[in-house]
Amino acid sequence: MTTTSVHVWFGRVAAGLVLATFGMPPWAQGAAGPVPQIYTCTDASGRKLTSDRPIPECSDREQTILNPSGTVKAKIGPVLTPYEQSQSEARIRAEQKERARKEEEKRMDRALLVRYPNLVAHQKDREEALAQVQLVKQVGVERLKDLLAERSKLNEEMAFYAKDPSKAPARLQRQVAGVTQSLVDQERFLTEKDKEIQRINARFDEEQERLEPLWQANAATAGPTR
């Protein structure tokens, strides 16, 4: 055996003893153990750093994770400060809230479309809602006319005490005060009915504005009728 052969033989024996004693190194384990990862980045000073775990010096910047072959496996972002973390969480919550709002709008649109499949159905419901309020308002108008007529009669009686209304009988004074207050209440009631009519029209106007593109989309989907 030559000197070179002896050296090779001793080298193989030594390698076998190392493997028998310590086992396979991580990079040689393959399927028998975890695949190593390489973290690499460039720090604030411009140094290119490499490690087998996340690099603290690059916690404020992006780090690249490489496979043993050198290909890019993944990238991890910088570690956020408490303030940045709170801002990020607030942004996520706002995005979630906005998505929930849009989903709720879609749900309401679907329900609205089921209730009012076309303009005719919507207009009919509007007219019925207005008619109910108008009916109540008309009763109020008639009541107002009666109160005005009653006050006119009382004013004729009070004309005898025009120089000194305090000399009018207590009964008459109470009637005048009662009718006057009733007129104020009735006029307030009629004003509220007018506002309710405005609210109903505003609601139906808003609904119609939302429904029109939905009706158009439905008509386009259905296509021309024969």
> What string, H for helix and E for strand, traces the elements in order?
HHEEEEHHH
Which range best describes the helical content: under 10%, 10-25%, 25-40%, 40-55%, 55-70% or over 70%?
A: 55-70%
Mean pLDDT: 85
Shape verdict: elongated
For the record, the count of structural domains works out to 4
β-strand number: 4
Fraction of residues in β-strands: 5-15%
Regarding quaternary structure, what we see is single chain
List keywords for this structure.
67% helix, disordered N terminus, 226 residues, alpha+beta, 4 domains
What does this protein structure show overall?
The protein folds into 4 domains: about 1-30, no CATH class; about 35-80, no CATH class; about 80-115; about 120-220. It is built from 5 helices and 4 strands. It has helices at about 5-20, 25-30, 80-115, 120-160, 170-220, and strands at about 40, 50, 65, 70-75. A 4-stranded antiparallel sheet has the order 2-1-3-4, with no helix packed on it. Helix 4 (about 120-160) runs antiparallel to helix 5. The longest helix has about 55 residues, at about 170-220. The chain is elongated, with a radius of gyration of 44 Å. Mean pLDDT is about 85; it is low at about 1-30.
